[in-house]
Structure formats: structure tokens, C-alpha cells
Amino acid sequence: MKFNQLLLLTSSLALSFAKPSGESCWSEKFNIPCCKSTTSVERSTYNGDFGKENGQWCGLGESKRPIEDVPPEAPIPRDIDSLRDPAAECDISDSITGDSLAKEAPFRFGVGLNGVDINNYTPSSKKMMELIKYQFNSMTYSNGMKSIKIMDEEGSRKNIAEGREEVAVDFSGIIDGLEFAKKNGIHIRGHVLVWHKQTPDWFFRKDFDTEKEYADVETIFVRLESYMKAFFDFLNFNYPGVVDVFDVVNEAIEVREGKFDNSTGWYTRTESLEGDDNIWNTLVGPSYVVRAFRIARKYALPTTKLVYNDVDTFMTKPHDKTQAVIDLMNILRAEDLVDALGMESYIDQDLVNVDAPEDYARAIERFTEAGLEIQITEFTIYNDDREDWLETQTKRYRDFFQVVIDHVKKGYDNISSFTVFGLQDGYRFYDNDTQKTRLFDHDLQKKPNYYAIMEILKQYNAELAGEEVSDDDNVVEVESGVVEEEENSDSEEETQ
Known about the structure:
Blueprint: E1 16-17, E2 40-41, E3 43-44, E4 49-53, E5 56-60, H1 101-104, E6 108-113, H2 126-135, E7 138-141, H3 147-150, E8 151-152, H4 153-161, E9 168-169, H5 175-184, E10 187-194, H6 217-238, E11 245-250, E12 260-261, E13 268-269, H7 279-284, H8 288-299, E14 305-310, H9 321-333, E15 340-347, H10 357-369, E16 374-381, H11 389-409, E17 415-420, H12 448-464, H13 471-474
Parallel strand pairs: 6-7, 6-17, 7-10, 10-11, 11-14, 14-15, 15-16, 16-17
Antiparallel strand pairs: 1-2, 3-4, 4-5, 8-9, 12-13
């Protein structure tokens, strides 16, 4: 049975009606045509009402956006050719010819863009981006789109001085990646709007001043709405369709003892694994999740999927996190606020947080039975200091990716993307990066785990075509593509 046949009718919103748009089509600026015949309003946003024709979104009536509300313009991108490229010496000819993950996968195949500031974000490397263009069709900034990188403290204080309780924003750090994606037909997963980490403390303080006490609940939400509106306005008007997925809330559920409040019915996180408060829950309560999604739905284009993203969603001990995720998703779906689940997949080589690939498969099955679209995000197999780490890593990548493809083979179409959270081992923008979890090595050569995934994809496509794959084609030797390599919390994305 196809996933689309499993979808629940969760929306409690009644349809309203509007006239089809006239000669002037206001929604075309967002790459959305205007409706020709339908009058049913499927979604009402800040910019206007939208209906559907032939399963596609279309604009209805006139724009609802105030004329005086001018959207922000995009900063001028840098000249990448003029920047120092730490990967310039890498010969990537083998990595940008032949097999392509994006071409073989039955879903979007994405990669994380690493770095902690504009000077070391992956899009600053021409060679790295050339490889990404060939191998992937989706990208996610591991840090660049988080609030601590986008919110502008000085500008926000200036707004306060002018009597405006608004968060100032600075998108200059992500403009290179957005421009690259726009020019090359690559999509970006927005990550992330609301998280208990990497949100600047001054955002929550009176007058945006860290020396003052915390602001009241409604002031915090006024600020959050101003921030999310500015973010969506910037993307909607400058890069429509490029960032067509956004993680709205990140890691709001926790099932480890002493770190949750289950009075909500979905094990609301109260602390991080390190013992830090979930500041959103502490200051405004668990309603922050639903309220954040309401704001996002108000300003996002209907073509932008809104996602709840969480780590260890396959855990069932000491409490059932899979069910907690389903319960929260059902609350959000009841108001038509969420489109997909982001299933972070950080997996230890010794399977500390998941007993076996079968448990991973069981979580996917349960999410599917609940009618959820799934996006595999932040997929990472940790390595350790064992001598056979590369062999073990390759086996884990093979076993867990096989789970994903086996699900697709059953006829389900609800896994829409798969993202590995980083491009290369020993990230060349860092002097001392010891990561060895990626599909490409320090010299941007394919690793055995790359070949393991490609083998599974080729076998899948051969079966679809009724062909046979020779034993020689299927063999993945651990020695393939190996070179000497240089020697991250709930998830490890903070240091990526």
C-alpha cells in the first residue's frame, strides 16, 4: 500500500472560498501560478490565500501583504574564485564522473554544509561545491542557518532604541550557498528556526541586553515572529523554491529519566543531555512548539514543507520516544502545521543508542503507519579508535541504508530525502578536524561507505528495471578508495 493511501485526515480547518486571481498574478513571484478555476482556500498566509489545482498550489484572489511591507533584499554574494580554497590541491576527477548518489537515489540525497562562520562554510570551497553539485541534490547548513548565526545583536538593540521589538537579521553568511543552489538546481533544507541550543541569550532578555532580566512570554513570541517573518520573507522573495524544506523546531522531546515533563503527553524536553535547561520550555512552557509552527505556517510559502526534527526517534527505552514523536506530530497535524518528520540518525558503531538495524526499521514502519512523511536527516555513523573502524563503519552504513531502501522496495513513498551530515573526513577548513564519519576522505575521494551505499542503490535500480547486477559489480572492498586520513550533546551538529 502506498504511503499516500495511509495519510490521515487530520486537518480541522474548514475550507473557505475566494475568487481566482485576475490578470495580475501576485503569486508568480514565488514561482506559484495563480488559480484558474478553483475558489477553495486550502491555506491562508500572510502573503495571500492559496488553493490547489491538479494537486499543485496556486494563488487565489489578490495579495494580502501590505504594500508598505517591503521584503529584505539579498546581500551581494562573494566572488568564490577569489577565496583561498583549502581543497584546491584535491584531484576530484573520479568523484565527479561516473556514479552519482543524486542520480541513483529514489529520493533527494543531501549533504551537510559544515563550518562555523562564513570563512569556513563549505560553499567557500569551489572544489568541494563542484563535488556536491555532481553527487548531491540537497544541502543543509549544519550551523549557518541557526539563530545564533542569523540574529544580529547590534541591529536588534538599535531596533529597541527606535521603539521596535524586532530582531535584526544578517543573511550574508549563507548567501553563497543560496546562490550556488539557485544556479545549479539544488535544494536546501532550512535548519533550524527554534532549538534549545545555539539561540543567543540576549534574544530572551529585556531590551536584548544580557545584563537585564528575561523578557515576558508574549514579548519573546513577538520577537520570534519578527525573526521568522524576516527569514521567510528573505527566502520567499529572493530564493523561492530553493529552501523548500525547513526544520521549524529541533529536539523538543526527551525520554531519558529526569530530563522530561510528560504532563504534555509527549515527553517534553526539560534538559539537554549535558544538564542545561531547555530555555524555551523554561521561559515560555511547552506551547513554544505549537506556537512556533503556527508562526512558520503563517509566513512560509505553501510549497515549503515544515518539519519537526529530532534525534534518537527510534529509541524505545527507558520510554517510547517513537510514540512520543507520533503523539506530538498528531497534535501539530490537527492544525495542519507540519508536513514531515526529520529523523536524525546519529548511530554509534557499537549500536549504543539503537539495538540493531531492525529497531531502526521498526521506527520507520511505525512512523509510516501513523501517516508521516519521513526525511532522514543528519545521518552519521560514529567511528572510534578500533583498528577495524573503517570496516565496521562501512558495514553500519550498508546495514542502515539497506533498511531505508528495503522500505522503499515495499512500495512506500514517504521517505522523501536522505542527508549525510558532512562532506569529507578531516574537514580541510579546520586545522585539527578528527571526523571520520563522512562518505569522502580528506582528499575528497570516495570511501568504502560511499561504495556500499552506491551498491545498494544500483541493486535497487537494477531490480526496478528487471536487470541483474553481476557479482563483480556488487563487491565492495574496504580497501577501495582508502587513503591515509588526518586525524561532537544530543546531536553533534554544534561543532560541525
